[in-house]
Design goal:
The protein is mainly alpha-helical and about 270 residues long. It is built from nine helices and two strands; from the N terminus they run E-H-H-H-E-H-H-H-H-H-H. The structure holds fe (ii) ion (2 copies).
Length: about 270
């Protein structure tokens, strides 16, 4: 399969009823309150691009937590922890629905080409399961989800529309536990991985942080602030930097995964 426009579907019926039971309250959000014609065309198209990207990001997170839970099963991780990680994948699929419904109210997806066959994370080929799980724990949970928290908080504070605000609040409520579960896995794995593997994991963490660094390094964001998207400012960038140091690097160090200080400093 090659890249094609992101196009997701929904089957309804029993599947939808089961999901609703497990993730109640979605219907109570203020749906039907976005009037696309009330926005400037440029702002509307920016909002559609942002929420299309959000749909894909949530979808990719679902794939990542699924891969994480499979690697947990293959490494004999504690059952309750593995179940929690698998449940995070369902949270992310619920987030896909929320973001997709906002997008539908905005008039539909912006152009977004993607090859879904490559959506899952690609841990080191041939690595044993516990190391693959630890890699995904770091990239998806410890780094990705941890950085999504200040990003979503900022988005919520700067978004004026009640539906966008309610949806972001709902996402935020799940992302905290998503950010913690990776560290819980690494605490369980701490005595089961070698010093060499810990060093490898520290490099994986730095690579993952580097992939997000443009968010706080760039000072020339062209994104306009609209009622449906957030502006980018210095406080937001400072919050991301604080999260990297205080909520990623330090907790990883406590688990024996020590990030190279010089490389970390170049990323901040
Ligand atoms: Fe999410
Ligand atoms: Fe998440």
């Amino acid at each position: 399969m090659s890249a094609a426009q992101l196009d997701l579907s929904w089957i309804g019926g029993q599947s939808e009823r089961r999901l609703r039971k497990r993730r109640p309250g979605i219907e109570r959000l203020p749906w039907g309150t976005i009037t696309p014609s009330s926005f400037e065309p440029a702002h509307l198209s920016e909002a559609r691009a942002v929420w299309t990207n959000a749909v894909f990001t949530e979808y990719a997170s679902a794939a990542a937590f699924s891969a994480f839970s499979s690697a947990c099963l293959e490494s004999g991780a504690p059952i309750d922890l593995t179940a929690t990680i698998a449940d995070c994948a369902v949270d992310e699929l619920a987030h896909v629905e929320l973001a997709s419904r906002v997008l539908a109210e905005l008039g539909g997806a912006a152009p977004f080409e993607v090859d879904l066959e490559t959506v899952s994370p690609a841990p080191t080929p041939g690595a044993r399961a516990i190391l693959r799980a630890a890699e995904i724990a770091i990239t998806t949970s410890c780094v990705g989800e941890t950085l999504s928290l200040p990003a979503l908080r900022h988005g919520r504070a700067s978004t004026q529309h009640p539906l966008a605000n309610a949806v972001i609040a709902r996402l935020l409520a799940d992302e905290g536990p998503h950010a913690r579960v990776g560290f819980t896995f690494l605490a369980w794995a701490e005595d089961r991985i070698t010093a060499g593997e810990r060093e490898h994991l520290a490099n994986i963490a730095l690579d993952a942080i580097a992939a997000y660094a443009s968010l706080w390094q760039s000072t020339d964001c062209a994104c306009p602030k609209t009622a449906l998207t957030a502006s980018v400012d210095d406080d937001y960038r400072a919050g991301l930097r604080r999260a990297v140091v205080g909520h990623i690097a330090r907790p990883l160090e406590k688990l024996g995964i020590e990030l190279d200080a010089a490389r970390l400093a170049t990323l901040l």
